[in-house]
Amino acid sequence: MSEQKIIVVGGSAAGPKAAARAKRLDESADVTLLQKAPELSMASCGYPYYIGGNFDERSALLATPTGVVRDEAFFAAAKGVKARVNTEVTAIDRDNKTVAFTNSATGESGTLPYDKLVLCTGATPRRPPIPGIDLEGVRGLSEMRDADKLRELRDSGQVNNAVIVGGGLIGIEVCEALADSGMKVDVVEMLPQLLLFLDWEIAKLVERHVGSKGVTVHTENGVSEFVGENGKLTGVKLKDGTIIPCEVAVVSIGVVPNVSLAKEAGLEIGVTGAVAVDEHMRTSDPSIYAAGDCVEINNRITGKKAFAPYGDLANLEARVVADNMILGDKAVFPGTINSGICKVFDLSAGSTGLSEKRAIDEGYEVVTATNASMDKPGFMGAKLLVSKMVADAKTGRILGFQCVGPGEVNRQVAEAAMAVMNGNTVWDIGVADLPYAPPFSLAIDHFITTAHILGNKIDGRMAGISNADVKKLVDSGETPFILDVRAPAEFEEMRLGVGEKLIPLGKLRNALDELPQDKDAEIITFCKISMRGYEAQRVLEANGWTNVKVMEGGIMAWPFAIQR
Amino acid sequence: MSEQKIIVVGGSAAGPKAAARAKRLDESADVTLLQKAPELSMASCGYPYYIGGNFDERSALLATPTGVVRDEAFFAAAKGVKARVNTEVTAIDRDNKTVAFTNSATGESGTLPYDKLVLCTGATPRRPPIPGIDLEGVRGLSEMRDADKLRELRDSGQVNNAVIVGGGLIGIEVCEALADSGMKVDVVEMLPQLLLFLDWEIAKLVERHVGSKGVTVHTENGVSEFVGENGKLTGVKLKDGTIIPCEVAVVSIGVVPNVSLAKEAGLEIGVTGAVAVDEHMRTSDPSIYAAGDCVEINNRITGKKAFAPYGDLANLEARVVADNMILGDKAVFPGTINSGICKVFDLSAGSTGLSEKRAIDEGYEVVTATNASMDKPGFMGAKLLVSKMVADAKTGRILGFQCVGPGEVNRQVAEAAMAVMNGNTVWDIGVADLPYAPPFSLAIDHFITTAHILGNKIDGRMAGISNADVKKLVDSGETPFILDVRAPAEFEEMRLGVGEKLIPLGKLRNALDELPQDKDAEIITFCKISMRGYEAQRVLEANGWTNVKVMEGGIMAWPFAIQR
To answer: What is the ipTM, given to two decimal places?
Structure first.
């Protein structure tokens, strides 16, 4: 364990982490970090917040918490790592254990020997072959210079209209940044929804909120052409023929792993198209490791291979790489459960594990519950959370959890991620001892209540129907008897407006003659969040009705509500 | 399973939950809820926030989220539960399965038959036998009328000085409420620290913050006498002779379970003095269940019996009781891990599992790590978190976690609670996939970083020393060589002031001759949060020094720092 030469290719997230940790584990190691871009260790997840003006100091993206810029000198002095920027690795000679590089600033080129090599080559945004994509004004957001340009456009005040192509996580973050900067923003998404990690009806709540901020969302639509004049973008033409005038378009439709270096060196590429690694993050060459957005890892739930280009995983993977290079291949990276969260204007939206759709696609037999309730007691300034829990129908194991709302989504999704990783069932969570005090949560935490609801469904006590399915019934004209058990004042304030009947829960036991007297008639109950809706279901079933369902999440989770 | 008579004794938290859930599970059940107090289903955890003026509507403590007061009529109409207030149960006749009651408002008394009985008799604040405790102005905080009285005193503007006796969770919440109302507050605590669920050095950070708000904290002190004139409190005399003039004293030194009813009925009382129940929450009489602040449950970590009077557990226990009464004794309540959290002015303080002290008392061989770092990236308005993780030295299993700071403590403690419940090790958490985006967390979440630090310690790579132990060394005059590796500007802003030497990390490799040349000399390194301190340790060890320790948590966790 002495004086081994370690070369790390890539200086964004995984690379610097692997290099610095390796040096900390073995001060005698000779660690070199080769970075193609001019910057090192960029906080690229922060680009949208820089663009949106959340902060003004560009250097904050490139500096330590105490304000020291992470440049070559910093890596040399503080980390003992030889970092070289503007330095692209062009080839790996595995037989002789060398890499070839060229420096785009100085023109220098050469080779460097290694004992261990780490590939952290990252990923590149997809650029679809659409006419006009090379016009000035059509951009991605992956490099510091993209962030610089978009920030410059924001500060210029000269951009009135922007189009975001792609309604995924980064697309939505950039949408908010530009809309907050005063631009009129349109979002174009090929799929029927934004944020594919959410199920459709949860994503619709996000879409409604984005729309309330003046953003126009075009789902099930795509870009057929970027339109321009004199090489400059003037508009985006959609597949349905609509033309949206705009000065800027940001294309954000996912990324592809940068694998050409690995491929040309003959390293194994995985089924997802990213670099294949074993559980120790080692490629098919035992002297070469890989981490970050260029690798393929395991999905911890399905056991299948996954491409999961997230900044947090890049750091954790890189740490495992360093441990294995220096201490022997003992550390294991178990993979991802696809935990994620984002801010969407006044909402947060997060998810972990599998969505219902994804779980069904993977072959699981699932049950789900939707819970719309507050994050704290009302007297503490409660805010709404709408969650959906997905569990395996046979075992009650929690497979996934989504949460959206102005309330504290962060804690909810973190709890759920821990539950999914640990294979907890809805019954495990139903008796969990989580921290409680009124400033922080309800006495029964929202996450626990969601598990209770799902437990009631699995045990056959609660028959639920999703609001999406209720909407379908209504749209088809087959409207069943819909029973709103809220108070009259709540009904005045907001209602479904689909012909529902109002009987407050407290009056229900004495108003059974106002219900369909055919005891097999379909009745759908709901309230604000469908807790009272569930109580109404229990009352009706006890009185002989056989086909009563609760509209899950109540009116607060209904994306089509009429507000008065 | 039909028309069984269920009587629930106690109408605060556990009682209403057990009654309502039992009725939902079996509409044919005849459920009666007997409540000694005039109110039902009080949100008693909210009392400090009502007293402190966080909200003004007293009814919010007694009403549903939609504003319906939970009175007898509400329970009858919405829950199908016959609730009776002002109704104290005075005896249980187990042979004949009846309870005797008296109504303090009407004078009515009688007996009621039951098939199943649930005891949710709660707990009563300790009232120490101190001279003057019955003076007007000496109060507890357990009933609605206590909250009413303290709120009235606040609103009167006539109280200038208040003394809180007891620096536990409720004491601190009331302290904040009264201080926020403009009173000068003193807190008196017999132990050497506030908030006993925290270890001493973490509690000192809270104490410093409380002090910064103008509150005087007297630790290792007690009340010898409540002093008064004409039956009214005028001051509190401490054991050390100090007299604190005050118009109000709130005594909050813990609660004792109300077990007299159970005891007189011959039910088994547990080792903690609370009602003994099995894992199904059933007492020694199979027809009688118990839940809430009157019962004894399991500690899930130690396996020992615990008295854990928390509002969230009361609700979860009561749900298990209802399930078992109606569906047969299948549901299990596994117990507590002592998760808790509270707001302390601008800080939050939370804990789950065992503190270091508690773990050692329980016979564990433990390792701990302290981590002071931010909750989010600096450019997102980061706030500090100071955490301490306690793990079993043999297995790395996380036994406990404490977190204090202005940052988002809530998510951290919730994650830790899930880890402790699941028996996760520091290595499990070191590769956890938790939700990340800059508005919500660091790329490597604070909780994960804490596990990394502790893993480094267990693996022998990092030798830590607590700030408490450094302070002891300094106070004893045996000051070792203390090395601050921060930047000069940071040193100017805040320093330990104990003769430490400043060598910024980036200069360290070229300044080794400024260190003690005896390679066995004790050197203690630190920085702002001791991440750089750890890097410095690695550098020094690689250069032959053998006795280098990192002061954990850095200067941000040092409660004795000199601010300039």
So the answer is: 0.95
